[in-house]
Amino acid sequence: MDHGTVNPEMRLEDQGISGLAAVYYNDDADALHAAAVARGEGITGKGGTFLVTTGKHTGRSPKDKFVVRTPDVEDTIWWENNPPMDPADFDTLYTDVLAHMSGGTAYVQDLFGGADPAYRLDVRVVTELAWHGLFIRHLLRRPDVSELTTFTPDFTIINCPSFKADPARHGCRSDTVIALNFEKKIILITGTEYAGENKKSVFTLLNYLLPDQGIMPMHCSANHAKDNPVDTAVFFGLSGTGKTTLSADPSRTLIGDDEHGWSDRGVFNFEGGCYAKTIGLDPKAEPEIYATCAMPNTVIENMVHDPATMELDFNDDSLTANMRCAYPLHYIPNASDTALGGHPKNIIMLTCDAFGVLPPISRLTPAQAMYHFLSGFTSKVAGTERGVTEPEPTFSTCFGAPFMPRRPEAYGALLRNKIASHGATCWLVNTGWTGGAYGTGSRMPIKATRALLSAALDGTLVDSTFRKDPNFGFDVPLAADGVDDMLLDPRRTWADPAAYDAQAQKLVEMFSENFAKYVPFIDDDVKAAAIG
Ligand SMILES: Nc1ncnc2c1ncn2[C@@H]1O[C@H](COP(=O)(O)OP(=O)(O)O)[C@@H](O)[C@H]1O
Ligand SMILES: C=C(OP(=O)(O)O)C(=O)O
Ligand SMILES: [Mn+2]
After folding, report:
1. ipTM of the prediction
2. Which residues are listed for ATP binding in this entry (predicted)?
3. Of the ligands numbered here, which is closest to the C-alpha atom of 384?
4. b/e for 126-137, b at 16 or more Cβ within 10 A?
5. Is 120 a catalytic residue?
6. Which residue from 238, 232, 287 is spatially nearest to 256, judged by alpha carbons?
7. Residue 409 belongs to what H/E stretch?
8. pLDDT at 382
9. Of the residues 58, 239, 253, 431, which is catalytic?
Protein backbone atom coordinates (compact mmCIF):
# COMPACT_ATOMS: atom_id res chain seq x y z
CA MET A 1 0.00 0.00 0.00
CA ASP A 2 1.30 3.44 -0.92
CA HIS A 3 0.66 6.46 1.26
CA GLY A 4 1.42 10.15 0.81
CA THR A 5 2.48 12.35 -2.06
CA VAL A 6 4.91 11.18 -4.71
CA ASN A 7 5.63 11.61 -8.39
CA PRO A 8 3.24 8.98 -9.83
CA GLU A 9 5.88 7.97 -12.35
CA MET A 10 8.58 7.62 -9.76
CA ARG A 11 7.27 5.20 -7.18
CA LEU A 12 9.75 2.71 -5.75
CA GLU A 13 8.42 0.09 -8.22
CA ASP A 14 9.45 2.39 -11.08
CA GLN A 15 12.98 2.21 -9.68
CA GLY A 16 12.84 -1.57 -9.54
CA ILE A 17 12.20 -1.69 -5.80
CA SER A 18 9.12 -3.83 -5.25
CA GLY A 19 7.58 -6.21 -2.72
CA LEU A 20 7.14 -3.77 0.16
CA ALA A 21 3.93 -4.13 2.14
CA ALA A 22 3.64 -0.41 2.84
CA VAL A 23 5.45 2.68 1.58
CA TYR A 24 5.04 6.08 3.21
CA TYR A 25 6.06 8.81 0.78
CA ASN A 26 7.07 12.21 2.08
CA ASP A 27 5.41 12.11 5.48
CA ASP A 28 5.89 15.35 7.39
CA ALA A 29 7.83 15.56 10.66
CA ASP A 30 4.79 15.02 12.90
CA ALA A 31 3.74 11.90 10.97
CA LEU A 32 7.26 10.44 10.98
CA HIS A 33 7.61 11.11 14.71
CA ALA A 34 4.24 9.45 15.41
CA ALA A 35 5.13 6.45 13.24
CA ALA A 36 8.49 6.04 14.94
CA VAL A 37 6.88 6.06 18.38
CA ALA A 38 4.12 3.66 17.30
CA ARG A 39 6.75 1.26 15.99
CA GLY A 40 8.71 1.43 19.24
CA GLU A 41 11.76 3.04 17.63
CA GLY A 42 11.91 5.73 20.31
CA ILE A 43 9.81 7.89 22.60
CA THR A 44 8.49 11.44 22.78
CA GLY A 45 10.51 13.68 25.07
CA LYS A 46 10.04 17.09 26.68
CA GLY A 47 8.72 19.76 24.34
CA GLY A 48 7.69 17.13 21.80
CA THR A 49 11.23 16.03 20.99
CA PHE A 50 11.93 12.51 19.74
CA LEU A 51 14.35 10.46 21.86
CA VAL A 52 16.18 7.51 20.35
CA THR A 53 19.18 5.29 20.98
CA THR A 54 21.15 3.63 18.20
CA GLY A 55 22.61 0.51 19.80
CA LYS A 56 26.09 -0.59 18.85
CA HIS A 57 26.82 2.21 16.37
CA THR A 58 26.86 5.65 17.94
CA GLY A 59 29.29 7.21 15.45
CA ARG A 60 30.37 6.83 11.85
CA SER A 61 32.04 3.68 10.53
CA PRO A 62 34.63 5.10 8.09
CA LYS A 63 36.35 1.73 7.62
CA ASP A 64 33.10 0.22 6.33
CA LYS A 65 32.52 2.91 3.72
CA PHE A 66 33.16 1.86 0.11
CA VAL A 67 33.07 3.28 -3.39
CA VAL A 68 31.97 0.80 -6.03
CA ARG A 69 34.81 0.46 -8.53
CA THR A 70 33.01 1.10 -11.82
CA PRO A 71 34.85 2.23 -14.98
CA ASP A 72 33.30 5.74 -14.96
CA VAL A 73 34.96 6.62 -11.64
CA GLU A 74 38.17 4.61 -12.02
CA ASP A 75 40.36 7.63 -12.81
CA THR A 76 38.76 10.18 -10.51
CA ILE A 77 38.35 8.43 -7.15
CA TRP A 78 41.11 8.72 -4.57
CA TRP A 79 41.27 4.97 -3.99
CA GLU A 80 43.84 5.13 -1.19
CA ASN A 81 41.22 6.92 0.90
CA ASN A 82 38.08 5.21 -0.41
CA PRO A 83 38.14 1.42 -0.18
CA PRO A 84 36.80 -0.07 -3.42
CA MET A 85 33.88 -2.49 -3.65
CA ASP A 86 33.55 -4.88 -6.55
CA PRO A 87 30.47 -4.05 -8.73
CA ALA A 88 29.33 -7.68 -8.59
CA ASP A 89 29.51 -7.64 -4.78
CA PHE A 90 27.45 -4.45 -4.75
CA ASP A 91 24.83 -6.08 -6.99
CA THR A 92 24.57 -9.06 -4.65
CA LEU A 93 24.30 -6.74 -1.66
CA TYR A 94 21.60 -4.69 -3.39
CA THR A 95 19.55 -7.78 -4.27
CA ASP A 96 19.93 -9.18 -0.75
CA VAL A 97 18.95 -5.89 0.93
CA LEU A 98 15.82 -5.59 -1.22
CA ALA A 99 14.87 -9.20 -0.51
CA HIS A 100 15.34 -8.52 3.20
CA MET A 101 13.13 -5.40 3.07
CA SER A 102 10.46 -7.13 1.02
CA GLY A 103 7.14 -7.54 2.87
CA GLY A 104 8.02 -4.72 5.26
CA THR A 105 7.46 -0.98 5.53
CA ALA A 106 9.62 1.74 4.00
CA TYR A 107 9.69 5.50 4.51
CA VAL A 108 10.61 7.59 1.49
CA GLN A 109 11.77 11.20 1.70
CA ASP A 110 12.31 13.14 -1.51
CA LEU A 111 14.68 15.97 -0.64
CA PHE A 112 17.21 18.37 -2.11
CA GLY A 113 20.92 18.50 -1.38
CA GLY A 114 21.91 22.13 -2.06
CA ALA A 115 20.19 25.45 -1.33
CA ASP A 116 21.16 26.92 -4.70
CA PRO A 117 18.57 25.60 -7.19
CA ALA A 118 21.16 25.75 -9.98
CA TYR A 119 23.36 23.17 -8.30
CA ARG A 120 21.10 21.10 -6.10
CA LEU A 121 20.92 17.32 -6.20
CA ASP A 122 17.54 15.59 -5.92
CA VAL A 123 18.02 12.83 -3.38
CA ARG A 124 15.53 10.14 -2.47
CA VAL A 125 16.17 8.56 0.93
CA VAL A 126 14.46 5.22 1.55
CA THR A 127 14.64 4.16 5.17
CA GLU A 128 13.61 1.14 7.14
CA LEU A 129 13.32 3.28 10.27
CA ALA A 130 10.69 6.02 10.40
CA TRP A 131 12.99 8.14 12.57
CA HIS A 132 15.77 8.04 9.96
CA GLY A 133 13.15 9.60 7.66
CA LEU A 134 12.56 12.28 10.31
CA PHE A 135 16.30 12.84 10.73
CA ILE A 136 17.07 13.26 7.05
CA ARG A 137 13.97 15.42 6.54
CA HIS A 138 15.39 17.80 9.18
CA LEU A 139 18.88 17.68 7.74
CA LEU A 140 18.35 18.05 3.99
CA ARG A 141 16.25 20.63 2.16
CA ARG A 142 12.52 20.06 2.02
CA PRO A 143 10.76 20.62 -1.32
CA ASP A 144 7.34 22.30 -1.42
CA VAL A 145 4.50 19.82 -1.69
CA SER A 146 3.91 21.08 -5.25
CA GLU A 147 7.45 20.00 -6.19
CA LEU A 148 6.91 16.43 -5.00
CA THR A 149 4.67 15.30 -7.84
CA THR A 150 7.45 15.89 -10.38
CA PHE A 151 10.39 14.96 -8.15
CA THR A 152 12.80 12.66 -9.96
CA PRO A 153 15.72 11.44 -7.88
CA ASP A 154 19.26 11.94 -9.13
CA PHE A 155 20.47 9.57 -6.43
CA THR A 156 18.72 7.12 -4.12
CA ILE A 157 19.90 6.12 -0.67
CA ILE A 158 18.59 2.89 0.82
CA ASN A 159 19.25 2.62 4.53
CA CYS A 160 18.39 -0.72 6.15
CA PRO A 161 20.04 -1.10 9.59
CA SER A 162 18.53 -4.54 10.30
CA PHE A 163 20.31 -6.02 7.29
CA LYS A 164 23.66 -7.48 8.31
CA ALA A 165 26.08 -7.72 5.43
CA ASP A 166 28.29 -10.79 5.11
CA PRO A 167 31.98 -10.15 4.33
CA ALA A 168 32.28 -13.50 2.54
CA ARG A 169 29.26 -12.88 0.34
CA HIS A 170 29.38 -9.08 -0.14
CA GLY A 171 33.11 -8.37 -0.22
CA CYS A 172 32.89 -6.05 2.76
CA ARG A 173 34.64 -5.87 6.14
CA SER A 174 31.83 -6.37 8.66
CA ASP A 175 28.04 -6.44 8.80
CA THR A 176 28.07 -2.66 8.37
CA VAL A 177 28.33 -1.19 4.88
CA ILE A 178 28.07 2.28 3.41
CA ALA A 179 28.50 1.72 -0.34
CA LEU A 180 28.40 4.49 -2.93
CA ASN A 181 27.67 3.41 -6.48
CA PHE A 182 28.13 6.38 -8.81
CA GLU A 183 27.19 4.41 -11.91
CA LYS A 184 23.89 3.11 -10.54
CA LYS A 185 23.32 6.30 -8.56
CA ILE A 186 22.55 4.32 -5.44
CA ILE A 187 23.94 4.39 -1.91
CA LEU A 188 23.34 1.39 0.31
CA ILE A 189 23.66 1.64 4.08
CA THR A 190 23.34 -1.49 6.21
CA GLY A 191 24.03 -2.60 9.76
CA THR A 192 24.16 0.80 11.48
CA GLU A 193 21.48 2.95 13.09
CA TYR A 194 23.75 6.00 13.57
CA ALA A 195 21.83 8.71 11.74
CA GLY A 196 24.91 10.72 10.75
CA GLU A 197 25.74 8.21 8.00
CA ASN A 198 22.71 9.44 6.04
CA LYS A 199 23.79 13.05 5.88
CA LYS A 200 27.48 12.38 5.45
CA SER A 201 26.84 10.06 2.52
CA VAL A 202 24.98 12.87 0.70
CA PHE A 203 27.95 15.11 1.50
CA THR A 204 30.33 12.56 0.00
CA LEU A 205 28.20 12.44 -3.16
CA LEU A 206 28.25 16.21 -3.56
CA ASN A 207 31.98 16.27 -2.88
CA TYR A 208 32.37 14.00 -5.87
CA LEU A 209 29.89 15.65 -8.23
CA LEU A 210 30.30 19.40 -7.69
CA PRO A 211 33.97 19.98 -8.59
CA ASP A 212 33.08 19.18 -12.22
CA GLN A 213 30.85 22.25 -12.16
CA GLY A 214 33.61 24.42 -10.74
CA ILE A 215 32.14 24.34 -7.24
CA MET A 216 34.31 23.92 -4.18
CA PRO A 217 32.52 21.58 -1.73
CA MET A 218 33.55 22.30 1.84
CA HIS A 219 33.31 20.57 5.22
CA CYS A 220 32.52 23.84 6.92
CA SER A 221 29.87 25.86 8.67
CA ALA A 222 28.96 29.33 7.43
CA ASN A 223 27.33 32.54 8.60
CA HIS A 224 27.11 36.13 7.48
CA ALA A 225 26.87 39.55 9.10
CA LYS A 226 23.29 40.53 9.97
CA ASP A 227 21.49 41.78 6.85
CA ASN A 228 24.73 41.59 4.89
CA PRO A 229 25.44 38.34 3.02
CA VAL A 230 28.42 40.04 1.38
CA ASP A 231 30.19 39.63 4.71
CA THR A 232 30.22 35.83 4.77
CA ALA A 233 32.53 33.62 6.83
CA VAL A 234 33.14 29.89 6.50
CA PHE A 235 34.55 27.67 9.26
CA PHE A 236 36.30 24.54 8.04
CA GLY A 237 36.82 21.78 10.57
CA LEU A 238 36.75 18.06 11.18
CA SER A 239 34.13 16.72 13.60
CA GLY A 240 34.29 18.27 17.06
CA THR A 241 36.34 21.33 16.16
CA GLY A 242 33.45 23.75 16.64
CA LYS A 243 31.74 24.26 13.26
CA THR A 244 28.23 23.93 14.70
CA THR A 245 28.96 25.74 17.98
CA LEU A 246 30.78 28.71 16.49
CA SER A 247 28.52 29.29 13.49
CA ALA A 248 25.49 29.67 15.79
CA ASP A 249 26.59 33.20 16.72
CA PRO A 250 23.61 35.34 17.83
CA SER A 251 25.17 38.45 16.32
CA ARG A 252 25.34 36.87 12.84
CA THR A 253 23.01 35.04 10.47
CA LEU A 254 23.47 31.27 10.33
CA ILE A 255 23.79 29.81 6.81
CA GLY A 256 24.58 26.28 7.89
CA ASP A 257 26.56 24.18 10.36
CA ASP A 258 28.40 21.53 8.35
CA GLU A 259 28.43 21.28 4.53
CA HIS A 260 28.59 24.06 1.93
CA GLY A 261 29.48 24.70 -1.66
CA TRP A 262 31.30 27.76 -3.02
CA SER A 263 30.19 28.53 -6.57
CA ASP A 264 30.79 31.62 -8.71
CA ARG A 265 27.65 33.00 -7.06
CA GLY A 266 28.86 32.59 -3.48
CA VAL A 267 28.34 30.11 -0.68
CA PHE A 268 25.33 27.79 -0.40
CA ASN A 269 24.37 25.30 2.26
CA PHE A 270 23.92 21.71 1.10
CA GLU A 271 21.52 21.14 3.98
CA GLY A 272 18.40 22.47 5.64
CA GLY A 273 19.16 21.47 9.21
CA CYS A 274 21.85 20.99 11.84
CA TYR A 275 23.26 18.07 13.78
CA ALA A 276 24.78 19.34 17.01
CA LYS A 277 26.74 17.57 19.72
CA THR A 278 24.98 17.81 23.06
CA ILE A 279 27.66 16.55 25.42
CA GLY A 280 28.17 19.13 28.14
CA LEU A 281 25.92 21.55 26.25
CA ASP A 282 25.78 24.64 28.44
CA PRO A 283 22.63 26.79 28.16
CA LYS A 284 24.69 29.88 28.97
CA ALA A 285 27.46 29.26 26.44
CA GLU A 286 25.24 27.86 23.65
CA PRO A 287 21.66 28.99 24.38
CA GLU A 288 20.42 28.68 20.78
CA ILE A 289 21.48 25.04 20.38
CA TYR A 290 20.37 24.15 23.92
CA ALA A 291 16.88 25.48 23.19
CA THR A 292 16.46 23.12 20.23
CA CYS A 293 16.60 20.20 22.66
CA ALA A 294 13.07 21.05 23.80
CA MET A 295 11.50 21.83 20.43
CA PRO A 296 8.94 19.68 18.61
CA ASN A 297 10.37 16.78 16.60
CA THR A 298 14.03 17.56 17.37
CA VAL A 299 15.73 14.18 17.17
CA ILE A 300 17.69 13.54 20.36
CA GLU A 301 20.13 10.73 19.67
CA ASN A 302 21.83 8.67 22.39
CA MET A 303 21.15 10.94 25.34
CA VAL A 304 20.35 9.61 28.78
CA HIS A 305 17.16 10.96 30.36
CA ASP A 306 15.33 10.60 33.65
CA PRO A 307 12.24 8.48 32.88
CA ALA A 308 10.25 10.13 35.67
CA THR A 309 10.84 13.77 34.72
CA MET A 310 11.98 13.22 31.09
CA GLU A 311 14.83 15.62 31.89
CA LEU A 312 17.87 15.11 29.62
CA ASP A 313 21.28 14.58 31.20
CA PHE A 314 23.78 16.56 29.13
CA ASN A 315 26.72 15.22 31.12
CA ASP A 316 25.98 11.50 31.05
CA ASP A 317 28.10 10.08 28.25
CA SER A 318 27.40 6.45 29.18
CA LEU A 319 25.84 5.75 25.76
CA THR A 320 28.45 7.76 23.85
CA ALA A 321 30.34 11.04 23.96
CA ASN A 322 28.88 11.61 20.48
CA MET A 323 25.34 12.30 21.70
CA ARG A 324 23.47 14.54 19.27
CA CYS A 325 20.42 16.56 18.43
CA ALA A 326 19.10 17.12 14.91
CA TYR A 327 16.75 19.96 14.00
CA PRO A 328 15.75 22.10 11.02
CA LEU A 329 17.78 25.28 10.43
CA HIS A 330 14.95 27.62 11.39
CA TYR A 331 15.08 26.30 14.99
CA ILE A 332 18.11 28.58 15.35
CA PRO A 333 16.54 32.03 15.77
CA ASN A 334 18.87 33.93 13.46
CA ALA A 335 19.13 31.39 10.65
CA SER A 336 19.04 32.49 7.03
CA ASP A 337 15.82 31.78 5.09
CA THR A 338 17.73 31.13 1.89
CA ALA A 339 20.82 29.38 3.31
CA LEU A 340 22.84 31.36 0.76
CA GLY A 341 25.78 33.68 1.37
CA GLY A 342 28.24 35.75 -0.60
CA HIS A 343 31.85 34.92 -1.40
CA PRO A 344 33.63 34.34 1.93
CA LYS A 345 35.36 37.44 3.22
CA ASN A 346 36.96 35.36 5.97
CA ILE A 347 37.96 31.72 5.90
CA ILE A 348 38.48 30.13 9.29
CA MET A 349 40.22 26.79 9.58
CA LEU A 350 39.30 25.21 12.91
CA THR A 351 41.70 22.78 14.50
CA CYS A 352 41.31 20.99 17.80
CA ASP A 353 44.97 20.72 18.81
CA ALA A 354 45.22 18.18 21.61
CA PHE A 355 48.93 19.01 22.02
CA GLY A 356 48.10 22.56 23.18
CA VAL A 357 50.75 23.96 20.86
CA LEU A 358 48.90 26.06 18.26
CA PRO A 359 47.83 29.60 19.17
CA PRO A 360 44.09 30.26 19.58
CA ILE A 361 44.16 32.32 16.39
CA SER A 362 46.73 32.95 13.65
CA ARG A 363 46.49 34.78 10.33
CA LEU A 364 47.46 32.76 7.28
CA THR A 365 48.73 33.90 3.90
CA PRO A 366 46.91 32.22 0.96
CA ALA A 367 49.86 29.83 0.58
CA GLN A 368 49.79 28.98 4.29
CA ALA A 369 46.02 28.48 4.05
CA MET A 370 46.58 25.99 1.24
CA TYR A 371 49.24 24.25 3.31
CA HIS A 372 46.93 23.91 6.31
CA PHE A 373 43.95 22.91 4.16
CA LEU A 374 45.93 20.05 2.61
CA SER A 375 47.44 19.09 5.97
CA GLY A 376 44.15 19.19 7.89
CA PHE A 377 45.79 18.86 11.28
CA THR A 378 43.36 18.37 14.17
CA SER A 379 42.23 15.67 16.59
CA LYS A 380 39.52 13.15 16.23
CA VAL A 381 37.32 13.67 19.26
CA ALA A 382 35.80 10.90 21.34
CA GLY A 383 32.87 9.09 19.83
CA THR A 384 32.42 10.42 16.30
CA GLU A 385 34.20 7.44 14.83
CA ARG A 386 34.05 3.92 16.16
CA GLY A 387 36.98 3.16 18.47
CA VAL A 388 38.01 6.74 19.25
CA THR A 389 37.74 7.31 23.01
CA GLU A 390 39.99 10.31 23.64
CA PRO A 391 41.31 13.14 21.43
CA GLU A 392 43.52 11.53 18.83
CA PRO A 393 45.80 13.84 16.80
CA THR A 394 45.32 13.31 13.10
CA PHE A 395 45.95 14.90 9.72
CA SER A 396 42.58 14.80 7.98
CA THR A 397 43.14 16.42 4.62
CA CYS A 398 40.61 19.10 3.55
CA PHE A 399 39.47 18.95 7.21
CA GLY A 400 37.26 16.04 6.18
CA ALA A 401 39.21 13.14 4.68
CA PRO A 402 36.46 10.56 5.38
CA PHE A 403 34.15 12.45 3.00
CA MET A 404 36.53 13.21 0.13
CA PRO A 405 36.16 10.88 -2.86
CA ARG A 406 38.63 12.86 -5.00
CA ARG A 407 42.29 13.53 -4.44
CA PRO A 408 43.02 16.39 -2.00
CA GLU A 409 44.81 18.39 -4.72
CA ALA A 410 41.54 18.60 -6.67
CA TYR A 411 39.87 20.40 -3.76
CA GLY A 412 43.06 22.35 -2.99
CA ALA A 413 43.23 23.79 -6.51
CA LEU A 414 39.58 24.87 -6.42
CA LEU A 415 39.95 26.55 -3.04
CA ARG A 416 43.17 28.24 -4.00
CA ASN A 417 41.65 29.77 -7.14
CA LYS A 418 38.59 30.96 -5.29
CA ILE A 419 40.67 32.56 -2.53
CA ALA A 420 42.79 34.26 -5.19
CA SER A 421 39.75 35.55 -7.14
CA HIS A 422 37.81 36.81 -4.15
CA GLY A 423 40.60 37.82 -1.79
CA ALA A 424 39.41 36.13 1.41
CA THR A 425 41.39 36.60 4.63
CA CYS A 426 42.36 33.23 6.15
CA TRP A 427 42.76 32.30 9.81
CA LEU A 428 43.76 29.18 11.73
CA VAL A 429 41.83 28.84 15.00
CA ASN A 430 42.75 26.34 17.70
CA THR A 431 39.65 25.30 19.67
CA GLY A 432 41.62 22.49 21.32
CA TRP A 433 43.93 22.64 24.29
CA THR A 434 45.68 25.50 26.05
CA GLY A 435 47.96 25.55 29.10
CA GLY A 436 49.36 22.14 28.21
CA ALA A 437 48.45 19.12 26.16
CA TYR A 438 45.29 17.03 26.64
CA GLY A 439 45.62 15.57 30.14
CA THR A 440 47.40 18.59 31.65
CA GLY A 441 45.92 21.68 30.02
CA SER A 442 42.29 22.52 29.42
CA ARG A 443 40.00 23.06 26.44
CA MET A 444 40.11 26.56 25.02
CA PRO A 445 37.29 28.58 26.62
CA ILE A 446 34.46 29.03 24.10
CA LYS A 447 34.21 32.64 25.23
CA ALA A 448 37.79 33.33 24.18
CA THR A 449 37.33 31.62 20.81
CA ARG A 450 34.16 33.62 20.20
CA ALA A 451 35.86 36.91 21.14
CA LEU A 452 38.76 36.19 18.76
CA LEU A 453 36.40 35.24 15.95
CA SER A 454 34.35 38.41 16.49
CA ALA A 455 37.52 40.48 16.19
CA ALA A 456 38.55 38.59 13.06
CA LEU A 457 35.15 38.88 11.42
CA ASP A 458 34.48 42.54 12.28
CA GLY A 459 37.80 43.47 10.70
CA THR A 460 39.55 44.79 13.81
CA LEU A 461 41.98 41.91 14.31
CA VAL A 462 43.49 42.14 10.86
CA ASP A 463 44.71 45.65 11.72
CA SER A 464 46.32 44.68 15.02
CA THR A 465 49.99 43.97 15.72
CA PHE A 466 51.25 40.46 14.97
CA ARG A 467 54.29 38.41 15.88
CA LYS A 468 55.65 35.74 13.56
CA ASP A 469 55.43 32.32 15.16
CA PRO A 470 58.97 30.84 15.21
CA ASN A 471 57.76 27.26 14.69
CA PHE A 472 54.93 27.66 12.23
CA GLY A 473 55.70 30.91 10.42
CA PHE A 474 52.20 32.38 10.62
CA ASP A 475 51.20 35.72 12.14
CA VAL A 476 49.81 35.68 15.67
CA PRO A 477 48.09 38.75 17.12
CA LEU A 478 49.64 40.15 20.29
CA ALA A 479 46.36 41.36 21.76
CA ALA A 480 42.63 41.17 21.17
CA ASP A 481 39.64 42.67 22.93
CA GLY A 482 38.15 40.46 25.62
CA VAL A 483 41.02 37.96 25.64
CA ASP A 484 43.93 37.70 28.06
CA ASP A 485 47.14 38.50 26.11
CA MET A 486 48.81 35.47 27.63
CA LEU A 487 46.32 33.11 25.99
CA LEU A 488 47.44 34.31 22.55
CA ASP A 489 50.92 32.93 23.19
CA PRO A 490 50.54 29.24 24.05
CA ARG A 491 54.14 28.99 25.24
CA ARG A 492 53.28 31.38 28.07
CA THR A 493 50.29 29.27 29.10
CA TRP A 494 52.45 26.21 29.76
CA ALA A 495 53.95 25.78 33.23
CA ASP A 496 57.19 24.62 31.61
CA PRO A 497 58.19 26.59 28.47
CA ALA A 498 60.87 24.03 27.60
CA ALA A 499 58.21 21.33 27.54
CA TYR A 500 56.20 23.55 25.17
CA ASP A 501 59.21 23.94 22.88
CA ALA A 502 59.76 20.19 22.81
CA GLN A 503 56.10 19.51 22.04
CA ALA A 504 56.05 22.22 19.36
CA GLN A 505 59.13 20.71 17.75
CA LYS A 506 57.45 17.31 17.69
CA LEU A 507 54.39 18.81 16.03
CA VAL A 508 56.53 20.57 13.43
CA GLU A 509 58.07 17.20 12.57
CA MET A 510 54.64 15.59 12.32
CA PHE A 511 53.50 18.31 9.91
CA SER A 512 56.60 17.90 7.82
CA GLU A 513 56.38 14.13 7.66
CA ASN A 514 52.69 14.23 6.76
CA PHE A 515 53.10 16.88 4.08
CA ALA A 516 55.77 15.01 2.11
CA LYS A 517 53.06 13.20 0.12
CA TYR A 518 51.60 16.47 -1.19
CA VAL A 519 54.91 18.05 -2.20
CA PRO A 520 54.97 16.60 -5.75
CA PHE A 521 51.56 18.13 -6.46
CA ILE A 522 51.88 21.66 -5.14
CA ASP A 523 53.16 25.05 -6.27
CA ASP A 524 56.35 26.67 -5.08
CA ASP A 525 54.67 29.24 -2.85
CA VAL A 526 52.92 26.49 -0.89
CA LYS A 527 56.21 24.59 -0.65
CA ALA A 528 57.75 27.75 0.75
CA ALA A 529 54.94 27.94 3.33
CA ALA A 530 55.62 24.37 4.46
CA ILE A 531 56.53 23.84 8.08
CA GLY A 532 59.71 22.09 9.22
N1 LIG B 1 36.73 26.82 22.29
C2 LIG B 1 35.78 26.05 21.79
N3 LIG B 1 35.30 26.31 20.56
C4 LIG B 1 34.34 25.51 20.03
N5 LIG B 1 33.80 24.45 20.67
C6 LIG B 1 34.22 24.15 21.89
C7 LIG B 1 35.23 24.94 22.50
N8 LIG B 1 35.46 24.41 23.72
C9 LIG B 1 34.65 23.37 23.86
N10 LIG B 1 33.88 23.20 22.78
C11 LIG B 1 32.91 22.10 22.60
O12 LIG B 1 33.40 21.33 21.53
C13 LIG B 1 32.33 20.82 20.76
C14 LIG B 1 32.43 21.33 19.32
O15 LIG B 1 31.55 20.54 18.60
P16 LIG B 1 30.76 21.00 17.32
O17 LIG B 1 30.52 22.48 17.32
O18 LIG B 1 29.58 20.11 17.21
O19 LIG B 1 31.84 20.62 16.22
P20 LIG B 1 31.64 20.24 14.72
O21 LIG B 1 30.35 20.86 14.29
O22 LIG B 1 32.83 20.82 14.04
O23 LIG B 1 31.61 18.75 14.68
C24 LIG B 1 31.05 21.29 21.41
O25 LIG B 1 30.62 20.26 22.25
C26 LIG B 1 31.50 22.52 22.19
O27 LIG B 1 30.70 22.75 23.30
C1 LIG C 1 27.94 14.17 11.66
C2 LIG C 1 29.21 14.35 11.72
O3 LIG C 1 29.72 15.62 11.55
P4 LIG C 1 30.22 16.71 12.57
O5 LIG C 1 30.73 16.00 13.76
O6 LIG C 1 31.27 17.42 11.80
O7 LIG C 1 29.06 17.60 12.95
C8 LIG C 1 30.10 13.21 11.84
O9 LIG C 1 31.31 13.41 11.71
O10 LIG C 1 29.59 12.08 12.04
MN1 LIG D 1 28.70 19.84 13.46
Report:
1. 0.97
2. 200, 219, 237-245, 286, 324, 449
3. 2
4. bbbbbbbbbbbb
5. no
6. 232
7. helix 408-422
8. 79
9. 239
